[in-house]
Design brief:
Belongs to the carbon-nitrogen hydrolase superfamily. Nitrilase family. This protein is α/β, with parallel strands linked by helices and about 210 residues long. The chain contains five helices and ten strands; from the N terminus they run βαβββααβββββαβα. Helix content is about 30%, strand content about 25%. The strands form three sheets. The protein has a five-stranded mixed beta sheet. α1 packs parallel to α3.
Length: about 210
């Protein structure tokens, strides 16, 4: 049986490079402890914008909020791109499967995305969050359903469902139908109810 590490750490908001250093540090520590799969939280690079409102009100935006949005955009990740290459190099250096939440930017839109890397450092693929929750929709676009992969790996069939997606029965059913065995659920939710949800899903999906 392989060891799995679930990282609970804080990124540096608006600072992609420093956050990638944190990823490297925690990956090194987890790998040294024998982990073969390392999971980071939702939107870890470069941060889930908890508490930020980007100056948005119905019918208006503040100048300060626009500046915050630009900083968030500037710290987001191009896929493919240099930050993806760095993450792949981290996975390869420590010979681990790496599953990590990033803020992906593409064609003027940001997405809450999970990236999957194998122990050779190759990007296996990605999943874009289908339904941003509440105020997340101020800054994140909707995934179109074309990126809902389950990967065959040496550890088993690996996939991810992001945060509130886990409360979408059809999404869970789809993943079960793909034969998922290692069900990753990166989130920014720190409530006790999340633990109960994960137990239920583990029993429901036998994963």
């Amino acid at each position: 049986m392989s060891r799995v590490a679930v990282v609970q750490a804080a990124p540096v908001v608006f600072n992609r490079d420093r956050t990638l250093e944190i990823v490297a540090d925690w990956t090194r520590e987890a790998a040294a402890d024998g982990a073969k799969l390392i999971l980071f939280p939702e939107a870890f690079v470069s941060a889930y914008p908890k508490g930020l409102d980007f100056g948005a009100r119905v019918g208006m935006r503040t100048a300060a909020g626009r500046d915050d949005y630009l900083r968030y955009w500037d710290s987001a990740v191009d896929v493919p791109g240099p930050s993806v290459d760095r993450l792949g190099a981290i996975a390869k250096k420590h010979s681990v499967h790496l599953v990590i939440g990033v803020i992906e930017r593409s064609a003027g839109t940001m997405y809450c995305t999970v990236l999957f890397f194998d122990p050779e450092g190759q990007l296996l693929g990605k999943h874009r969050k289908l339904m941003p929750t509440g105020a997340e929709r101020l800054v994140w676009g909707f995934g179109d359903g074309s990126t809902m992969p389950v990967f065959e790996t040496a550890l088993g069939r690996l996939g991810a469902v992001i945060c509130w997606e886990n409360y979408m029965p059809s999404m869970r059913l789809y993943m079960y139908s793909k034969g998922i065995q290692i069900y990753c659920a990166p989130t920014a939710d720190d409530r006790e109810t999340w633990v109960s949800s994960m137990r239920h899903i583990a029993m429901e999906g036998r994963c």
